[in-house]
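Morning, I've got a small favour to ask if you have a moment. I'm working through a protein record and want to make sense of it properly. The fold is given in discrete form, as structure tokens running alongside the sequence. Can you walk me through what the tokens say about the fold? Thanks so much in advance, here it is:
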Amino acid sequence: MANGANLVARSGTLEPSIAPDTIPISSRPREIGRQLSMPAYGGLLVVVLCVEVTAYYRFSNSTAILMRGGAGFIDLQFTVMEWLQYMLLGAAATTILLSRMEFAALAKRALITPVPGSRRTGILAIQVMLAAALVAWCGLNPASFASTESVAAWALVRIALAAGAMATFALAFVPLEVWREWYRARPGAFRVGVAAGIVAVPLLRDFIPAMSTIPMVTSAMYNSSIWAAEAMLNALGQHPVVNWERHSIAVPGFRVVIAPLCAGIDGIVIITLFLAAYLWFCRASLRFPLALILFPVGAILSWFLNAVRLTALIMIGRHSPAIALGYFHTIAGWAFLNLLGVGLVVSSHSMSVFRADPLDSAPQAGERSSSANMYILPMLVTLAIGMLTRPFGSSLNFLYPVTVIATAAVLLAYRGKIVRLGWNPDWSAPATAAVIFAIWIAIARWSGTLHNSAMAASLHGLPEWERNCWLVFRVAGAVVTVPIAEELFFRGYLLRKLVSVDFESVDPRHFTWLSFLISSILFGLLHQNWIGGILAGLGFAMVQYRRGRLMDAIVAHSACNALLAAYAIATSSWGLWS
């Protein structure tokens, strides 16, 4: 973009030299018939990310490997991660604020512009390979690292793989030319953003702990946060035990000691600094002094979300301490803070009471939702609801019916298109189902995962009506919603998408080794019995290849799950449903 893209001052306001309607998302011509709507493509990326995160936390031995390096090395790792978080937060917030007009214009155009999939396939394939390498690298045997030096070398490779996976994911979501377009529009914003990120490290890292040493501030934050978390837990029927002197909250099987930085001070300080910068840079478009109300609103919401985070941490930790401490505790604070910052900015720009100028009219042009939504959304809902409800049941997912109902609702929305897939499977579907069932049982017996005593105890501890109700939903999910959702995505969409971005133009009988193997491996990684899952994915794909009908794969999958469900109930082999 030309140098004239810089902002110029006119009449005390800042005007962008580029308008939302004129920003090209890509300078290359688009390929007709090889595009995907942004919601469908975003859904695909979320599914890929969910699979990768699930695989990482299932196979990763990172904590055990880091412990081989000693306490000093672990402290160094945490320090480095803390510095990187503060740098990225400061750099991103400053860059967006300084180039808010260009950023908003590019974001608006990106949301309504179809995705040129042919140019995303390659970078997405690289991202998946890097993520797979990260999972494999972090799944090494901790005993293989006998010295601090070997652990340090492992950690460097881990950081490089993680950075590569995140960078390629960002490029898969937003292509390089858009990043370049944004930079060319406001290069100064990026330079100042980098400087601000460096400055933010000592500011946030030292100022926030200093605030936590002020007795009045610390006492108020501790008491209010613990009181709010206790009230929320009582409302959920948990009856927590609070130790006000040690700042701890305990429920049966799990106890949290709240550190000063976890009392909510850091969130209030960060959101206040962010709002100060936001109100200053956007002072021409906001109505003062009314806009100043965002300060107390931001502080109150930050405190409230921190209480929600503590409550969720305790609820999750009661059933799964590993997920609570190793996953939720790590990301929840930053995730809530980012959502709050974005929410305050979007709300203040969307509500006329805060704006100095009238709201712009919404863009009239839009793109029709792609039929890919039918293939992606059911699987996306299954994964998302499953990940949200699973932590609330350590041995038995009591909220599994929620996943079944939510997935069924999405499938019903697309029932017309699904019915048109055809309902006349031949003998290959049940035959393949029987073979996969036999292989699955054999692998479960060999690996010792056929039985699950904890799940059996949880089931027998339920009242009979509740146990029967849960079993009905579990069978319905296994036989109906799960096979349809998974086959729509893996065989109906991904198997053909890996052949051509215009997946609907690909003959379902068209075979390539790349799509055959990758789709089956990703399918397998979603299952506890991942070896059996990969073999099942290969089998269901072969069923579809035979006649080119997705319904054959759905019937094979459903029949196999029906056999597994019958076997699990008849023999109390609850490990099949772990």
Summary: The chain has 21 helices and seven strands. Residues 1-33, 359-370 have pLDDT under 50 and may be disordered. Residues 215-359 form one domain. The first strand starts at residue 8 and ends at 10.
